[in-house]
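Hi C.,

You asked whether I'd gotten around to modeling the 435-residue construct. I have! Everything is below, sequence then structure, no commentary in between.
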Amino acid sequence: MSETLTNTSVGPVLIAGGGIGGLTLALTLHQIGVPCVVYEAVAELRPLGVGINLQPNAVRELYDLGLNEPVLDTIGVQAREWALVGRNGRDIYAEPRGLLAGYRWPQYAVHRGQLQMLLYRTVLERLGPDAVRPGHRVVGYRNHDDGVTALIETRDGARQEATGTLLVAADGLHSAVRAQMYPEQPPIHWGGAIMWRGTTPGVPIRTGASFVGLGSLRHRVVFYPISQPDPATGLATINWIAEVTVDNAGGWTQGDWNRRVDVAEFVHHFEGWNHGWIDVPAMLRGASEAFEYPMIDRDPVPSWVDHRVALLGDAAHVMYPVGSNGASQAIVDARVLGAAFVQHGVSPAALRSYDDQLCADISALVLRNREAGPFGLLGLVDERCGGVFDDIDRVIPAAEREAFMARYKSAAGFAMDALNAAPPKIAPGKRVRAG
């Protein structure tokens, strides 16, 4: 039997940003009976980006939205293993992931753009064609006692206003809403790491669905498949990230935050990285295109809420992509906020509850990821043996490695026993009735 909680909202929830977090929130609001409108800056949503991982805590939430295994299998691969390998090609740490590890939900490696387009299509199917307004960027807001006004700029430069009960800003790294909320916030933080990302056709290694980090803390490559192998060729799409850390005293000087580059500009950092089972230079050179990114985040803020306005996803907590949890946390944010609406109605009280539940812990995770997150194990190896070893157990005992990873999983919200035992964030049939 469905349950409803009456609230006194007089307009829709306005969502700034049609990325993974904003679209997940739209589907969540539809599930609980709350009207919403998504304002997206780009004129046309396209499947842009590279590979990402969805942790079991986020996959669980997508399942609860009806985007279950048969659906997610069309855009990605269920991960089977997470492994760190030293520069000498020897394993430092490996563990099963997802269902093989004992989670009730899998972990997925997917193309970020394909996930966004899946969410977008689902929003249009369930909420109707007017639920998403492309070409409309939210550039600011005004709070009122009984609602909020979103200030909007269209692609042709026209200014508009929209009124609603609440505004949720899922507008990413360069969030205009966050900038208004915190006009004195420090600039984007870059710690010195440069990433080059791309995809290459290749034969999946190890389990066939393994996430592998190879190298050292300041010089590594990460790779994993994001598609099933082609039956004719046996080749899957291998997503890779090559990374080096340099002196950041002069700041990021390239200007672009996402620059297409020739592989020849960076492949020299990885010459000789050939262990037979993986030829890193060949993998990098096999990409049809590559992009350069600085590894960046923002200093945490004390609250994600200003009365009737809340931040969500990267607008709230953009973090270093070392724990494979940026997109996952955006999904979880949306679901925690939806659950707060069920409990408190569509109200500032719900936003405060959401903030109380997540802001402090996820802000701590931002800083933990800045310190390398789970890749911190590579740093311990560097410290203790200079990255050269024959027997990893003599460098870092297995119990210490496992405890290190367990602490990270707990901080990131996907410790297995706790997740498996937790009830759904939004129980089936729970709804909020406006009126």
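If it helps when you're writing up: The two ends are 21 Å apart (CA to CA).

Thanks,
B.
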